[in-house]
Design a protein that fits this description.
Layout lengths: L3 H15 L7 H8 L3 H13 L3 E4 L3 E4 L1 H23 L8 H8 L5 H10 L35 E7 L4 H10 L6 E7 L6 E5 L3 E5 L1 H6 E3 L1
Antiparallel strand pairs: 1-2, 3-4, 3-7, 4-5, 5-6
Length: 217
């Protein structure tokens, strides 16, 4: 059994690895966890001793097979709890992350399987992130950002990279959620900001950061 802190680190390394980062540095992990780089080094040593990761300064941190399974189990529980909190308890999508972070550390293998079955085996959580299956399989990871869409193209919101409360509340204010149809009307070369059409006729000006944080399909 692993500590909450160890599981959080493994989940962070797993998330960073999915972005295609070739070298996962202590700095990258510290940014993901909003932690002190010095304390990250100490934890990496502990995780190496437990054979959950391999780490050296040149190659960075990499999950072992044992580490991958542990990380995916934590991610699976986290995302299943997010679905449960939103769909069954009525929490907003801006509220569920912090609660799920507490629930993900319940050490009961059968609980996750029962929760998965109760929810109808969902493929994605409320933020559009894929939920790992019990057998380790995982649905398609969405990677195309709104910023990459061609002017005049229509698309659909499939996920969000930024799950902070502030950003999710901003999306709600704009009437944007998973499944919302968008059309990119204009890109401003000066600062990367954009004009988008939300739904049928609502035009909104958004920032470059916004475009980088919304994933579309």
């Amino acid at each position: 059994m692993h500590t909450f802190s160890e599981e959080n680190y493994l989940r962070a390394i797993y998330r960073i690895s999915l972005e295609g980062t070739t070298k996962i540095s202590p700095t990258a992990i510290a940014e993901e966890l909003q932690n002190n780089p010095a304390s990250v080094i100490d934890m990496l040593k502990k995780l190496t001793e437990k054979k959950l990761i391999s780490y050296d300064k040149k190659k960075g941190a990499k999950l072992t097979e044992k580490g991958i399974k542990t990380a995916m189990d934590v991610v699976r529980k986290h995302r299943l709890w997010e679905v449960f909190l939103l769909e069954k308890l009525g929490y907003g999508w801006d509220e569920i992350h912090d609660i799920a972070e507490q629930l993900e550390h319940i050490h009961n293998d059968e609980l996750a399987d029962r929760l998965d079955k109760f929810l109808g085996f969902p493929d994605y959580d409320p933020h559009g992130d894929p939920i790992p299956k019990a057998n380790g399989k995982i649905a398609t990871i969405h990677k195309t950002t709104l910023l990459e869409v061609e002017i005049g193209s229509s698309c659909q919101v499939v996920a969000v990279k930024d799950t902070s409360t502030a950003f999710l509340q901003y999306l709600e204010k704009l009437g944007i959620g998973i499944g919302t149809r968008l059309k990119l009307l204009e890109k401003i070369s000066f600062d990367g900001s954009m004009t988008i059409q939300v739904g049928k006729d609502n035009k909104v000006n958004v920032s470059k950061k916004f475009g980088e944080s919304v994933l579309v399909g």
